[in-house]
Structure formats: C-alpha cells, structure tokens
Amino acid sequence: xxxxxxxxxxxxxxxxxxxxxxxxxxxxxxxxxxxxxxxxxxxxxxxxxxxxxxxxxxxxxxxxxxxxxxxxxxxxxxxxxxxxxxxxxxxxxxxxxxxxxxxxxxxxxxxxxxxxxxxxxxxxxxxxxxxxxxxxxxxxxxxxxxxxxxxxxxxxxxxxxxxxxxxxxxxxxxxxxxxxxxxxxxxxxxxxxxxxxxxxxxxxxxxxxxxxxxxxxxxxxxxxxxxxxxxxxxxxxxxxxxxxxxxxxxxxxxxxxxxxxx
Length: 262
What we know:
By secondary structure, the protein is an alpha/beta fold. The chain is built from 10 helices and 12 strands. The chain has a single domain, classed as Aldolase class I (TIM Barrel), CATH 3.20.20.70. About 50% of the residues are buried.
C-alpha cells in the first residue's frame, strides 16, 4: 500500500478511542513511567466491559515479555478474543515474523513491535510484507532529551537507545509500518496530558496514522491529542480506575465536534 493512501486526521473522520490493556502474567497492570505496576483486573473481563462501553479497538501489550525474554502469552490473547469482536492489537515479545503469525492465529488483528524492531529494523518489513501493512504496528516509547528532541527507549523503558525518535518514526514508516503507537515515557501514567509537542512533531514527520499514548486524564486531553495530529487516542488509567467510561469520553468528544462512533 502506498503512503498516498494515508491522510492526516480530520474531525469529520471517525476517531478511534482505544483502551490499553498492559498485561503481565495474565493480569492487567498499570504504573507510572512503566514502573510500580499494580493489578487492575482480568484482561478478558475488562476487554468485554470496554467493548460494551463502545471501545473501537483494544491494545493488548504483554509488558514483561521482552524483559523476561519470553513470548507473549497466547492463551491470554485467546481468552480476550473469545470475549470481544472489536479489533485487537497485540504486542510484547514479538521478535520474528513467526511470532506475529502465532499472535494473529490466536486472535490478534494487528501486531505491535517495539524493542525487537529497534534492534533489528528489518523485522518491520518482514511482518509488513508477510501479513500486510495494516497488521504492522510499530510501538515507540519516546523520552524527552531536549525541549524539541526525544530518545527512543526500549525494554519497557529500561534502556535508552540514543536513537532520535522522529528519525526512527520516519524509518519505521519507510520499512512498512502501517500505524505508529506513540507513547510518551515522561507522561505515562502521570495523568498530566499527552506530550503535545511530541505528537505534533511526529505528525509532521510521518503520514501513517498515529495513536497517542501516555498521560490522558480527561476527554479534553484526548481532544488536544487529536488537534496535534493523532488519528486515534489510547488511554488506560482513566478507564481502569473507573473515573470515566469509554462512552463518557466519546460523548464529551462528540460535544467538542469530533466524529466518534456511539
């Protein structure tokens, strides 16, 4: 698929609201800047609840798989798939195209690559060419280094790579990424709002859709992310802690002029 097929977000297009399930050893967890993880529930039960609330998609990330050197827990993916019909993006521990195949066979619609893609960028092309660009999601965790620059961090935020995040986004797009899941390490779990400068810079750098991640605390924060170039918005804490439902967020976004599916 050529890059010309992608267009930047337009509020007349349907915007996706995506709950994120960070999973470790079969349980959904949440922390701040990927640390201090606390248990927030069963992934299959939460997935079913979020679909009932109107979630457009789900992102399922096995946050301990890469650090522990193991594959994503396929049985958990299967349990989630049995409970929901909306698209699921699954990541964590994806190191080969065969890993991607196992996830797709278990019920994933898209596969997210992070650490392994940074260490071996050709993985993006392999998965994109084998399963289609629409299946190849590159997850990028970016950490501020200067006011207008971000470093790519890997292994669940444990390692800095020295790679410029915007340059990495551009390369990932060239290699076949169909979508970018862009998380601000600085904002993750803080509820202080998305890194709008990062989103705008990323949106200016690539044409593939960007999912904004890291820092959401309100529908206003999601709206700001869309204004700064995101095509979809992801959140975890506000949904897991019951502060807002997906439907609450969508209702507020619709009131702000955003086209969402209710």
